Amino acid sequence: VEWLKNDEVIDPVQDRNFYLTIDHNLIIKQARLSDTANYTCVAKNIVARRRSTTATVVVYVNGGWSTWIEWSTCNSRCGRGFQKRTRTCTNPAPLNGGAFCEGQSVQKIACTTMCPVDGGWTEWSKWSPCGTECMHWRRRECTAPAPKTGGKDCQGPVLDSKNCTDGLCMQTAPGSDDAAFYIAVVVAVIVCLAILLVVVMFVYRKNHRDFSSDIRDSAALNGGFQPVSIKTSRQDNSHLLAVQPDLTAAAAMYRGPMYALHDISDKIPMTNSPLLDPLPNLKIKVYNSPCSVTPQAEAGDLASKLSPQLTESLLDNEAQNVKNQSPALQKDPSCSAFGSFNILGGHLIVPNSGVSLLVPAGAIPPGRAYEMYVTVHRKDNMRPPLEGSQTLLSPVVSCGPPGALLTRPVVLSMHHCAEPSSENWLLQLKSLSAQGNWEDVVVLGSETLTTPCYIQLDPQTCHIVTEQLGTYCLVGQSINKSATRRLKLAIFAPVVCNSLEYSIRVYCLDDTQETLKEVIQLERQLGGQLMDEPKTLLFKDSTHNLRLSVHDIPHSLWRSKLLTKYQEVPFCHIWSGCHRKLHCTFTLERFSLVTSELICKLCVRQVEGEGQIFQIQTTLSEDMRPTEGLLVEPDSSATTLMGPNAFRIPFSIRQKICTSLDAPNNRGNDWRLLAHKLSLDSYLNYFATKSSPTGVILDLWEAQNFPDGNLSSLAAALEEMGRHEAVVSLASEIRR
After folding, report:
1. Class for domain 2-57, per CATH?
2. What whole-number distance in Å separates Cα of residue 459 and Cα of residue 704?
3. Residue 262: which pLDDT band, with cuts at 50, 70 and 90?
4. What start and end residues bound the annotated signal peptide (predicted)?
5. Residue 248 φ/ψ, nearest 5 degrees
6. Where are the domains of the chain?
7. How many C-beta atoms lie closer than 10 Å to residue 689's C-beta?
């Protein structure tokens, strides 16, 4: 069977906008103008060839408005006017009979332009008092009115002055100011000449004096040898002195003239080291300026004199220190599982957490083996950022190695705490990219052919069928006030109590095994015991807080130290899901240490919502002893299952079922009906894109029914489909 477009064969490989289903239906993923054509279906075999009636597809385009241009300037220069802006029906333009744009192409708004205002002078101020210059002043401002919106500024002076003594002011002697100026210039010239003379004499003496040095302490030169007093005569122009050092004195490294031999820790003891071999004659050129030695040259000189064995030992110690400082990768076995898998596949299970990774047989390419892992992240910095009414509904889980090549999907399973309902929730799967950003993978109910994974949302577990290993979590956004998330309430108290006070801790957790497991581990470290069986509370998006209170306390023996009748946990702290190990503490005080029994009730409920009541009855002990109230986790030592033992359906029977159901059947009892019978049909197109749709469905069934998968339910589904040969094979396996 093939499809023709204008009598040309359609090849979905070359044009991915076309998709051929198993039933040979032609699907155009997205209508394009180029898809306007005549389409014909041709079916042929050895005997005959048939053509269907030609279907004409016309892709019409409705017109769309372009963006508005900027508003024009106001058409009035002074007073009221209007501005306008326009748009065109060209984004896109209507084609093939498409509708023209609806709405206005021109918009007008009123505008007002301020008229220009010329500036005006205020009245002159009063004359100022008569000054020492025999003048007085008055001023005015250009503020009556001030110039606005382009108006002209005031013309004329701001200040006005006149003589205030009618010419009776005393006049200074003519030429006196000029004489003072000339005197100041002469003094300045004399000072400059004196300074210049001093500088010239200093430079002359520095360039013509003889070399002379009187060394009183030679420690700055010989680094601890015997002091030598050396003085050159003025007539002797020799600058080189030959000094034979005395090696009987203690040797020291030279640190410079300012601190020679001050650091005792830098001294090298007298040994048989090559450092004490006879030294050649030292020629020292002595100047008046002090000598200096750089630490780099000093270190290089010391390294050249150390023995090779000592140098190698120092390098080995340094390498060992670097090695010891390198951080080691820590793996927490309580929230992780690791295993090495090959083509036979297997199962990774994080104990008592509801988190597992199923690797089907054939998922890993032949001849390869992967070190795979699955881990639950407990740190808050690994949680995705949430917006608005979003809430985290599952733990953050990673599986790897990232980027591993898989030939068929794996199934990652993890618990969630939502009461799933498409009418109340908008659920989406998020993944952590290699750049460290959280990205949306799929929104449940909005899957497309390009969706990289399949999500099966059971009442308590989320199964992710994917070929991309990475970090995932389930995030929900409430659509209405009926959206509900499940809380797990657990009450703990100390096993041993030696004081009058007794604290009861009430935890409000997400209803997932991993969260409860983490709290149990914490309470074991704190010495706590579980006071009653944990209970589930349905918490709605009603913005009401969670209220906790203690009742029926025997007041003759105990009293509550809480000043109010109850405690409340804010709604936002619970709904966001970002506060792990959220809890409240009630402190009770007994009047006497003789009192050892406590009986009371603890009520937890959402305001105007559901609630739970716990019956607390315990006997206090002053020493550690075995307590029946301690919560003991079940033995889950098996975290890795490899090969055929990891799967409930034997490989041979699986092959028979896949061979029987993968091929499309006219009666419809193929893999599609199996997915419907097993309630795995939320998005069948995902399975249709796989080489063996039945195999992926059976892998998902294995993950759903782990560890106690009942083959009878699978056999019943196949029996209803009329697949008796598969039922017989499963029945023989059940009888084993």
Report:
1. mainly beta
2. 11
3. very low
4. none
5. -80, -15
6. 2-57, 239-271+280-298, 333-478, 485-619, 648-734
7. 12
